[in-house]
Amino acid sequence: MNKIALSVENLTKIYSKKNEIDISSKALNGLNFEVKQGEVFGLLGPNGAGKTTFLSILAGTVTKTEGNVNVWGFDLDLNPRQVRASIGIVPQEINLDAFFSPRKLLELQAGLYGVPKKNRITDIILKMVSLDKQADSYARSLSGGMKRRLLIAKAMVHQPPILVLDEPTAGVDVELRKNLWENVKSLNKEGVTIILTTHYLFEAQEMCDRIAIIDKGNLVALDTTQKLLDRIQTKKITFKVSKIPDNKNLTLPGVQFNSKIANTVTAIYEKNSYKFDDIINVLKKNSIEILDISTEDGDLEDVFVKLTNN
After folding, report:
1. What are phi and psi of 9, to 5 degrees?
2. Calpha distance 48→61 (Å, rounded)
3. Domain finish residue from 213, 229, 245
4. 240, 270, 239, 242: which is closest to 254 by C-alpha?
5. pTM of the entire predicted model
6. What are the residues whose beta carbons fall under 8 Å from the beta carbon of 308, sequence distance 6 or more?
7. What is the pLDDT of residue 1?
8. Residue 207, in any domain of the structure
């Protein structure tokens, strides 16, 4: 059974307004969830949902109003230093000293965490994030993707068992995004627990074992990625056809047929209501010759929109 890497119980944050507690300004409203050791855990939500507040509480820059946070067996209130040592947070903004090399930046960061020189693994980390060849170059000479990887490296100097990635691919092109995720997958295989926030829902769908969705400070969903996808029962089939007859009669109760695009028929229906053959038979009865078929199930974006109306 997997160890619990992070547990959150009744976590609440209320921001004060005009020196008084304003209940309507709850940034987090009694969050409860756990992150298991070794998993990639997605924390999703629209802007203003409370993700940044949660990460700020973990980082120690925001004080929670109530609730308990336990990281790797350490209570946030009783053992704040051990909690910080158990987490490496990769911020969304790139903030690097342009005149330091990756090696010097990691050495400096390790010193700030109190890691003795004999225990530092600077070269190992640089190789893990594919920056060993740029180890002694100025940070200002690195590409955008390299700078992102350097941020990950900085978060790893104290060898934390949990790595938090806050929008790691924001503003990164397709090739660099691919390389970045390969690095993250490698770290996860090494046993690092990953907590990910992202607005690119297809990334979360591909990367995450489980996903929590929060909206206006409330936890609205928490499940495996597959079970969340299973909540969307809508299926869409697109048929490329040779010709659509003028006297077509494409009707089936509960199925929405659309043939507005030339030589294309789409059928949208609930997955469990009909078999695939039932839809095809409607076209056959109308003497429509099918040239090609493509199907599309609901994705994480559909789940997100359904749960947050966003």
Report:
1. -125, 120
2. 17
3. 229
4. 270
5. 0.80
6. 45, 46, 49, 213, 215, 220
7. 47
8. yes
What are the tens digits of pLDDT across the range 270-287? Answer: 887 888 899 999 999 888
Backbone torsions φ then ψ of 154, nearest 5 degrees: -60, -35
Residue 306 lies in a domain: no
CB burial of residue 119 (10 Å; 0-12, 13-18, 19+): exposed
> For residue 253, is it left (φ>0), alpha (ψ between -120 and 50) or beta?
beta
What is the 8-class DSSP label of residue 119?
Answer: G
Give the integer Cα–Cα distance in Å for 134 and 126: 9
Contacts of 281 by beta carbon, 8 Å cutoff, 6+ apart: none
Residues 254 and 222 in one domain: no
Which tokens sit at 169?
Answer: 């691919």
Reported residue count of the chain is 310
At 182-203, the pLDDT tens digits run 888 888 998 999 999 988 888 8
CB of 126 closer than 8 Å to CB of 102: yes
Give yes or no for a contact between 211 and 228, defined as CB atoms under 8 angstroms apart.
yes
At 15 the pLDDT is: 84
Calpha distance 29→32 (Å, rounded): 9
Which conformational region is residue 217 in: left (phi greater than 0), alpha (psi within -120 to 50 degrees), or beta? left
The pLDDT tens digits of the residues spanning 44-89 come to 999 889 999 999 999 889 999 999 999 999 999 999 999 999 999 9
Total number of domains in the chain: 2
CA distances from 250 to 2, 143, 267, 284 (A): 52, 54, 10, 10
Does residue 2 surpass a pLDDT of 80? no
> In the beta sheet, which residues pair with residue 211?
42, 223
CA dist., res. 11 & res. 199, Å (int): 23
